[in-house]
Amino acid sequence: MQGKVVLVTGAAQSQGQGHAIAMAEAGADVIAVDICRQLDIVPYPMGTPDGLAETARRVEALGRRVHTAQVDVRDRTELTRAVDAGVERLGRLDVAVANASICTVQPHDRVTDEVWQTTIDVNLTGVWNTCSAAIGHLTDTRGNIVIIGSTGSTVGLPFYTPYVAAKHALTGLCRSLALELADRSIRVNMINPTGVDTPQGHSKVLPALLASRPDLGPIFMNSLPVDRIDPADVTNALLYLASDDARYVTGVQLPVDAGSTIR
């Protein structure tokens, strides 16, 4: 990634922060964006201005440049403005990492209009907005897009209905953009992890829901003997897909799921 510039959404904490720092370690400058405020429907702590500042500090400590913006991926105009400003400052854009995501857990009959719409808006429209803001710049560098999906992009997950609906849709988005952008040598790929050891990956209500429906418990089991993977496992896959080592890899959904989707 030496000399390249990478956009990472949801960069104030967890996977997004790790992705940004790893890209800097590999030699990239970073455009780091995050909403930096709590959404009412989200039951775990989201990124903060201090978290985004910490991402910037750690990138700069590695000798790389960073441009940060507090922006909501649901706002296409503001996100495009932030990406354009980052490119103007850092000179180019080579990789867009559509990482920002939220998750709620509840039975289908407790999915409110707000839960449904907010989840779709962040997890699907937010990814589309990220791609849209990046594509013009990626055309100049023959860059690539990496979308962070989920096992929920491949299989159904009970009690995650809005989340799974959005993550399934990302598969179609990835494949369609990969086809349409191939003539510009822009690659588009996805990473589909199993549960990750982050605040989003630890639901406080899922155990009780599964206790009432023990028949559904095996759906959440991995084949390999781990409950969750580390954020670094997702980052390692990202570093491959974003790099020139994957120059002929496009339109794929790379599972990093400890074998959960082959069960």
TrEMBL record:
Database matches in InterPro entries: NAD(P)-bd_dom_sf (IPR036291), Sc_DH/Rdtase_CS (IPR020904), SDR_fam (IPR002347), SDR_subfam_1 (IPR023985)
Gene3D superfamilies attached to this UniProt entry: NAD(P)-binding Rossmann-like Domain
Keyword entries, A-Z: NAD, Oxidoreductase
GO molecular function, one term: oxidoreductase activity
Annotated CDD domains: SDR_c
Highest rank taxon of the organism: Bacteria
Family, as annotated: Belongs to the short-chain dehydrogenases/reductases (SDR) family.
NCBIfam families assigned to the protein according to its UniProt record, in alphabetical order: PRK12826.1-3, SDR_subfam_1
Protein name: Short chain dehydrogenase
Naturally occurring in which organism (per UniProt): Gordonia neofelifaecis NRRL B-59395
